[in-house]
């Protein structure tokens, strides 16, 4: 996930004033450059040459980022982001239906541009999910009340959710609660990286970094009411997170938002984490005792 400087925040909406956090619409264009039917000619140019032509076609406007997302013998697909949804419409008009003429290449390349849709679960997906999955060995109460109420976040910058005035850049559960209770009362919060044993429990690395050096974290947020969960999901659809500093400068980053499919706050999952943590704590205590015995033995030999 990348972090970008925001030059136009006119479409940003306030999420939490105390943390200077906003939601900014993702403005993205999918651009297909179609090759002529005689595909052997496509070897005469590169995707970077085509990208440069696209940039020239939208001048003086610019993409904030543009990348190749797919390259086949029939077409090259680009994804271009812009500052605002308004600008995306302008760029679409400049590109869609146009042709690219390359030097020393006799055939035109046709350009098709469409506004990209957010990769985000639909209400139908989260509403039907409990009916699709296998029944798990949990108590009946949890099975019958199994409607989505928990959101999983990935790629949240730690520094943006740290306690103000503290030297720590670790995210705070209290800050996370304040930010996302704008959608409704929160029942449970879990930030795995704050648990010193969780990394060993999941067998992976909970520390992630954005391009630009900001450390990020994942979080689970469970709402008390289904209506609050729905409000949060609908509000976060197609959005990126924006931070506005005291100097007025703003940064934005993409974040992954989806509904929790792991039953993270179920009794079974909580019990499993508690038992795994207890086992790791016991192993840690045993290592400390072993180290102490070794030090005492070394000292005894030294003074004997």
List keywords for this structure.
Alpha-Beta Plaits; 304 residues; elongated; 5-stranded antiparallel sheet; 8 helices; alpha+beta
As residue ranges, the low-confidence spans are 132-144
Going across the major beta sheet, what is the strand order? 1-14-13-3-2
Provide the domain count. 3
The CATH architecture name of the largest domain reads 2-Layer Sandwich
**Main sheet specs:** 5 strands, antiparallel
Radius of gyration, rounded?
26 Å
Full CATH superfamily name of the largest domain? RRM (RNA recognition motif) domain
The dominant shape is elongated
Please write the CATH class name of the largest domain: Alpha Beta
Q: What is the beta-strand fraction?
A: 25-35%
Count of DSSP-assigned helices: 8
- Helix % is 25-40%
Q: Which structural class should the secondary elements be placed in?
A: alpha+beta
| CATH topology annotation of the largest domain | Alpha-Beta Plaits
- Strand tally is 15
Mean pLDDT reading: 85
Distance between the termini: 60 Å
Strand and helix order: EEEEHEEHEEHHEHEHEEHEEEH
């Amino acid at each position: 996930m990348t972090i970008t400087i925001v030059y136009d925040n006119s479409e940003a909406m306030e999420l939490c004033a105390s943390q200077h956090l906003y939601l900014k619409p993702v403005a993205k264009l999918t651009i297909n450059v179609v090759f002529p039917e005689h595909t052997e000619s496509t070897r005469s140019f590169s995707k970077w040459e085509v990208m440069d032509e696209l940039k020239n076609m939208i001048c003086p406007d610019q993409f904030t980022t543009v990348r190749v997302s797919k390259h086949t013998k029939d077409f090259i697909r680009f994804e271009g982001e812009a500052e605002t949804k308004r600008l995306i419409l302008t760029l679409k008009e400049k590109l869609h239906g146009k042709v690219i003429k390359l030097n020393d290449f006799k055939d035109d390349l046709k350009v098709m541009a469409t506004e990209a849709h957010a990769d985000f679960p639909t209400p139908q997906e989260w509403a039907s999910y409990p009916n699709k999955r296998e029944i798990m060995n949990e108590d009946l109460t949890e099975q019958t009340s199994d409607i989505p109420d928990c959101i999983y976040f990935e790629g949240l910058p730690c520094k943006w959710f740290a306690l103000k005035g503290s030297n720590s850049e670790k995210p705070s559960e209290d800050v996370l609660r304040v930010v996302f209770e704008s959608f409704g009362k929160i029942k449970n919060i879990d930030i795995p990286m704050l648990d010193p044993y969780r990394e060993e429990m999941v067998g992976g690395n909970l520390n992630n970094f954005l391009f630009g050096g900001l450390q990020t974290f994942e979080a689970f947020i469970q709402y008390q009411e289904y209506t609050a969960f729905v409000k949060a999901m609908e509000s976060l659809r197609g959005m990126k997170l924006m931070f506005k500093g005291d100097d007025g400068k703003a940064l934005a980053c993409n974040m992954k938002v989806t509904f929790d499919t792991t039953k993270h706050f179920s009794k079974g999952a909580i019990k499993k984490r508690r038992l795994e943590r207890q086992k790791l704590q016991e192993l840690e205590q045993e290592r400390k005792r072993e180290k102490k015995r070794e030090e005492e033995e070394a000292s005894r030999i030294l003074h004997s």
